[in-house]
Amino acid sequence: MLKISKLPFILLAVLLITALFVGGVFIYSLVTILVSIIVLSYLSGRTIYKNVVNILWKNNDKVQVGDKVKIELEFYNSGIFPIPYLRVKTNFSKRLTGEQEHERIYSIMPASKIIITKEFVCKNKGIYQIGYAEVEFGDSMGIFKWKKVFETDVSLHVYPKLHHLKRLKIPFRQNFGTVPVNHSAYEDFASVRDIRKYNIGDSLKKVHWKVTAHKGEFFVKNLELNATADINVFWDLYNKNYACEYGDEIEELGAECAVSIIRYALNNNMSASLYAKEHHFIRLSGTGIGRYPEFLDQITMAEVTGDILVWDLVKREAQKLNLGATAIVITPQIDDIALEVLLGFKAKGIEFSVIYLCRSKDAVNSNIEALKQRGIMVNTLSLADDIRLVLGGS
Fold first, then answer.
1. CA–CA separation, 108 vs 111, rounded Å?
2. Within its chain, how far is the Cα of 178 from the centroid?
3. H or E element, residue 126
């Protein structure tokens, strides 16, 4: 792209008219010099446009929120003309870096290069295209300005921060997957914890017959206690719920909850399902830790662009869940509609837990207490809280 200053050409037109009417060697010399300057400026700009090269380097292309990233932009002038000034503009998003992007001005001699280093801590999840750079340069006389865009397919994947949960503080009632509990009704006869001597009252089903025959006295098996679970995560992406000063931070907190819960479920052989509504509906289900990257990518790419309440999503999708299913709603909004929906499903035998996202625990929400009084678990999670402590209880 080329921009031309009109002033030199106006001056050239004046000199030509003067030469026609007045004549003289001096006037024609001025015309010749000005034309030479214009031509030389144009040719040097065209040469620089063809010979300026951009190379981008990065120390990593897949990171988590909170990780530090270093990116280097290298501009090389392979031509024979110097670049008096080079204005560089990149598209490092403020959402990514937390800082407003500023233009920078440099000069480059022939066969020389400049390196622009950008170091920052990744602020928000997402997939960011960082292979874009726009440069503007011109001649020393300011006659021509050239603009060149470098756009390569270079992206930076910033994943939500993963919190490794040792346990998950929610009730389990369904018959998929395994998770430790503290009730004998969930004794798993296929999983032996240890062996002990027989006590009066022990069930004969627990007798370890091989050890009993070898020792000559009765021994019984202590069994692992495992409930089974199918976890359904409903993630609130309704745009109006995040239209506040701390919206980005609360969105990030919700994403961290979602990936941490799903990672825990898959790692414990549970079936996990994710439901959300951004500009399209998200429905993803899977079992086994091998499916975790799919959930991680989906949550990373999701944006707060939803146009329906999460409770409308719950009403529609939870109808398809089996009785006794375990469902978790991650949301920054608990209102009267939430109360109505959750109590309705509880009466149908579908167990809900709610993770309430907020800036500070000082905020008062009467609906939270109403839900707790009716036996629905609500975990309040603020920006200052440790997710592992809130969700795991330890």
1. 8
2. 29
3. strand 126-129
